[in-house]
Specification:
Elements: H1 2-9, H2 11-23, H3 27-43, H4 47-55, H5 69-81, H6 85-102, H7 105-121, H8 126-141, H9 144-161, H10 164-181, H11 184-196
């Protein structure tokens, strides 16, 4: 929160830096800054602004070597947050492929989790396979919060697939973790999904 607050104070200066990079023809510097700011924009609900800067990158065209996987991941998550599922899927798939090439398991797990959310919203049963791969990566990394967040998705995927006992197991385990962690919002999410189940 402290760093997000500091970025908030400097937000106008950061916008000026992005405009300067753009006018000076410095795509590498622009991409690094956009990648660094993506989570700030996401956490502070500057989704339109984040997507605006990402969409202005000439290298975003399909098949281009750039931008890198972090920018693609952010672009996919912004598109997902705004309900643009086809764009979200395309960008997140490119991001996941690049993270897989780089053998970055944490970032791959994050991209796969977002892809599973896209699949769930599309009522695509591929959600379960993506979420399972992601949860296995989070487990291997010892990231218990990542596991619990993915269990929420796996519970939804299992409900969609009609495997209600598996859905119950995932959702109850996720709820227990977030209850112990004091995360009331995610407990409420788990309760809502258990209610739907």
């Amino acid at each position: 929160r402290t760093w997000l607050d500091r970025l908030e104070i400097e937000h106008d200066n950061l916008r000026a830096a992005l405009r300067w990079c753009e006018t000076q023809g410095m795509p590498d510097a622009s991409e690094r800054l956009i990648g660094a700011l993506a989570w700030f924009w996401l956490n502070r609900n500057y989704w339109s602004e984040g997507r605006y800067w990402i969409d202005r990158m000439p290298a975003l065209a399909a098949g281009a070597e750039r931008p890198g996987p972090l920018v693609l991941q952010a672009a996919g998550i912004f598109a997902l947050a705004q309900g643009d599922l086809p764009v979200a899927k395309s960008r997140l798939e490119r991001s996941a492929a690049l993270w897989r090439q780089r053998d970055d398991r944490l970032q791959l797990a994050i991209s796969l989790a977002a892809l599973a959310t896209v699949d769930l919203r599309n009522r695509d049963l591929a959600a379960q396979a993506r979420a399972m791969e992601s949860i296995d990566l989070f487990r291997a990394l010892g990231d218990r919060q990542g596991v619990a967040a993915l269990q929420l998705q796996l519970g939804s995927a299992a409900t969609l697939a009609g495997d209600y006992s598996l859905a119950q197991s995932y959702l109850a385990e996720s709820r227990a973790f977030f209850l112990a962690a004091g995360d009331a919002m995610r407990v409420a999410t788990a309760d809502s999904r258990l209610g739907e189940l």
